[in-house]
Amino acid sequence: MGGAGPPDGRLTPVGDHGRVAIKGVLFDFSGTLFRIESTQRWLTAVLEETGTAPAPAEVAELARRLERAGALPGGAPPHAVPAHLAELWATRDETPERHRALYTGLARQVDLPDPSLYDALYDRHRSPEAWRPYPDATEVLEALRRQAVRIGVVSNIGWDLRPVFRAHGLDTAVDAFVLSYEHGIQKPDPALFRLACEALGADPPDVLMVGDDRGADGGAAAIGCAVHFVDHLPVERRPDGLRPLLALLDGPRP
């Protein structure tokens, strides 16, 4: 998506002794606090919901092709973006219409048993059932709240993710949601990070951005935020990727 994050270190430090004195933390959504289900599970759930029953081998092959196409938002990126979708790919998170058109367009590269499945798959990925919080997300958010740190979620996305947080009991931990499609601005545009800092009532030098994408999330450094990166891994493979934040932030407040 363009842009560049900080250099090789995972943190752009602010404050003394390697700790970060902050008033607010901004989190990315997908790959940072939550992870989307696997492509195989995504497809299987929709097939079950719609009563479509291909043979297991066919389901596995369709899932493989959908993953290669990058049809699951929050999943693997496309192996290649078709020329007719290139402009949508670049601006997919600016409006709900662009987001849906892009991802259903990517899915349509795969010949599915029923044309209604393309929209059903898109709708499935927006459901709370399709997402799981990382194991330490609740612990970290609650610890920040106890320390009176303001919490925001800033995400490149084409739909309202608040119901996902609500369904998993994490909505009350978040003070502000700043979503690209609500502003027509995508990360790494500094304007989206400025809006997020304003929503927290904090100046950028007092804010830490936590994300998994150096290009998109690293854009926060342009306005003076500290930036920390986590690995975008399946939930089972990242049990404590957020927990190191607590040590980073365990210092005196301004």
From TrEMBL:
Domain of life assignment: Bacteria
Keyword Hydrolase carried by entry: yes
Q: Which Pfam families match?
A: Hydrolase (PF00702)
Which UniProt keywords are listed?
Answer: Hydrolase
Molecular-function GO terms, alphabetical: hydrolase activity
Concerning NCBIfam families, the annotation shows: HAD-SF-IA-v1 (TIGR01549)
Q: What is this protein called?
A: HAD-IA family hydrolase
* Protein source organism: Pseudonocardia adelaidensis
